[in-house]
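I am still getting used to backbone structure tokens and would like to learn alongside you. To get us started, please write out a protein record for me. Start from the sequence, derive the backbone structure tokens from it, and show both lines together. Once you have written the record down, we can walk along the chain together:
***
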Amino acid sequence: MKKETPEPEEIELRSMDIAEENKAKLKVLFPSVFTETVNEKGVPTESIDFEKLKAELGAFSDVFENRRERYGMDWPGKKDCMKLIQQPSIAALKPCREESVNFDATENLFIEGDNLEVLKLLQKSYYGKVKMIYIDPPYNTGKEFIYPDNYSESLDTYLAYAGLVDDEGKKFSTNTPNEGRFHTKWLNMMCPRLYIARNLLREDGAIFISIDDNEVSNLRKLCDEIFGEECFVAQLTILCNPKGRSQDKHFATNHEYALVYSKTILQKGSFSIEKGIDQIQTEYTEEDEMGKFRELELRNTHREFGKFNRKNLFYPFFVNTNDCTVSLDPDDTKVKVLPVWDDGFEGCWTWGVPKAKEDIDFLIARKVNGNWKIYVKDYANGATRMLKTIFSDKKFHTEKGQKAFDVLFGTKTKIFQSPKSPELLNLFFETSSTNNDIIMDFFSGSSTTAHAVLDLNNNDNGNRKFILVQLPEPCDESSEASKAGFKTIADIGKERIRRVIKKIEDEQAAKAKEAKGKLQYVAGEQAKLDLGFKVLKLDRSNFKVWEGAKPDASPEEIERQLKMFVEHINPEATQEEIFYELLLKAGYMPTEKIEKLSLAGKTVYAVADKTLFICLENEITGELINAVAEAGPLQFICLDKGFKGNDQLKANAVQTFAARNQGRDKAEQIVFRTV
């Protein structure tokens, strides 16, 4: 019997299969509901026994089971949205050095392309890693917004729209109220993007979505479905136009909203921010050896809580009237204090006995209107405050956002209409991110998000990273943007980031010059800031992806397809383009640090502390395989054509890595892949 030649794994050129990932998670939780069946072609397949699943969940049949009514949101095209979500992308993100700043060192990304395709491509590398998402999607105000006509052809649609291929009838279209499916088209555009974006959020992550009255009710229902009603955080109201819109029919609208949802249910105070210096100086008027503090009454000030329903929080303290110290130990020489209101209502404390014992040193007594009260010392160090749900400060107004943009571009003409205030987004990011978090915006427009992130990092020496995605929507030829030399909205966004970077660099240089003797210290502080961004552009894969022949395909058609794949790499693709596609589809971030090595006379790219090796040489040798095995990365990817049809060399490579992996933990084994 002929022994099969061992083969390396083939790298998956499609984006992560979301449906399969969900099935895998379900299988971990409920393995018994999976059963093997045979499909209509007689091929064994694994399927889910939904009756077993209902039983596992405790959802046994009842009198309501067969009712058709369901509580939830539905609209024409929703089923197609779910199909689209499960359709992997076979596109690529190609690097564009000439439009980037500090390309090799930066961890910031600007991706030009259709955000749905981009979100799919980022699934492997950013799954569960984004701390905060902010988006300002089209408001569906009756003005046009761009969406793909045919959702099953999103990549082809985008390529035709962006002028990267000939237009074969695939195009982006617009949405206006007189089309009859006004809200439906907007929901079909938003649903898959939000669904896939949720996968990118960390477990403690959150999403902020700007919206107005036209779709706020639909958006909230949609987010309840995707994120869970229990993960609704807030509906913020932002005073964006204090004068109001005079063209409105009945009331002059001067507000919009921001919906906030979390990935999972978060603890109280998760969105609080540090109190400012002015607030601390005003509120924290006392001071001791531990610092500034204020006194907060320990008695619960809400009468819905008291001895009648919180008996464990009704107990006495004993006060030394000489020094106002507090104890839990009964003492006839001290005053007994209970949480009783002036009118005799028996209230309760906010602390239980265990907490009081542990932090008794933070308690102090005060005599107020003849009665003793217990207070807790609340220190200013690390003090936080909750934001209110109405944002009325003038720094959040749209005109402030417009001014920030215009000053940056040195113009009074409206190159970009009504950008958000960087101060508003700065505050959003402060509530939801810390030093090294990733912030994403996949409707990035003029790149206000990048502006706010860079400013915030500059103010608090943070290292937040941004990922921006923007469609290269053409600027109208008669627009101020076009007159200023901008062809697309994406071009405006990229230029804004460059100008913000230049502004911060100039400010740093001025501070360094002023510091003089402190120059070395200032330079060290500045070195922490990531003043760059890497531009990637959505395009076709650099590889021909086998889609399989149709069932009724003729032998000639099958032969033709096979010949197409003899040379399956685009001859026009550069090594860097191929490298970045493989990097992303191997599950690594395109911002990983890259080191170029020479192994056995061949160039090998080492990524992420040498956990991934990629070799794009046209010839693979046994010496190279041995050198890679000795180096011990977690993955090694090379071109299949590098073996030049030498199956024995390829088999030896598989055996070499298998021998190296012998007896090692799975986490330390090399995965050998070809493409």
